[in-house]
Give the backbone structure.
Amino acid sequence: MTTENLVPTASSETTESPSESRNTNGVRRRSFLKGIGIAGAALTGGSLLAAASETAQTSGEITSSDVAILRFLAAAELLETDLWQQYAELGGVISGKQNPYQKALQKLDGDGSQYITSNTLDELSHAEFLNAYLLSKGAEPVDLDAFRTLPSSQAAGAQNIGRLTSLMNLTVDTSWYTRYRSTDNPDLGGTFPQAIDLVNVPAIPRTNDDFGPADHIQAIANTAAFHFAMIEQGGSTLYSAMAQKASNVEVLRIVVSIGGDEVAHFLEWVDFAGNGVQGPIAPFTDPTNGLTFPDFNATGNPELQTNLIFPVPCEFISSNLPRCAVIRPTNPKGIAMGVVNFLTGTGLFAGQSPAFFKALTTLAKHADAVKRGF
Ligand SMILES: [Fe+2]
Ligand SMILES: [Fe+2]
């Protein structure tokens, strides 16, 4: 199809005007908010962040261990914000004509673009809050700006700015889908097959050429849907694991509360991804690479049944106890490095510098070394 009639969104601007401000995470606030269609959103200005955190009413000192937890979580949230921003620019809410990627996402759920934009704003709020809280405690916030070096999509709608993450050649782990429909638990040795093999495929349109044919852009949208749930399940597990390491009760409150939001995201994307592997959308095949999304419900396999969107009760703590519906895994041992290695294996950081991996690894190792204590 031709894409000449696509209307570039406000997010296609590439220069930072003097009136734009960077927040402490380096996100160009005005252009980001315009790009996702939420001009005027009630968020604090970046220049106000430090001042606000200095006067924040928070409870006393926190330990270096709690700082290590919060700094790794802040890094994870900056990475989440970066990837979600890319999804929002191309697939989120915009004013004007919808592009074929948005339309494909909206076939999975008519509210899909709003959910993408909302998820993006949530991640931005998590990152900003954690860094501001760290500042309020006299601790160093996390700044990954030096690593915003990866290329943007060239498709109409994407800003042409440096990114922390790449969504253009991903290997998406889809085992979360079968895991949450299984009675086994990875913490007790359970292993789970991929629901569908998504290997070295784009999750966003790379250029305008990816906007068609229809089954090609639908395959990209479906890939994104499985990636959304993969990311948010990872966040759910990360926060559940980190909660077990927090010492200060206010830090525990922060970790549990943000973790609950990650779970809220995850649940929606479970349903969303399932909509792409059932009628009327599936089965279909991307004619450019042969990637097929089957109708999972036609298989008769309960571990693929699309409407089993809540976590099926599974083994928990001990196989001698009754099964329990929970987020899993939640074992905190080595969780931070586990997340770094897992995401690296998906291709999310392809092209990043050794300095990036060193910075992320250092944050992860400090978080993993934390033991709960008072
Ligand atoms: Fe988050
Ligand atoms: Fe998240």
The pocket of fe (ii) ion (ligand 2) is lined by residues 80, 123, 232, 235, 262, 265 (CB under 6 Å). The first strand starts at residue 170 and ends at 172.
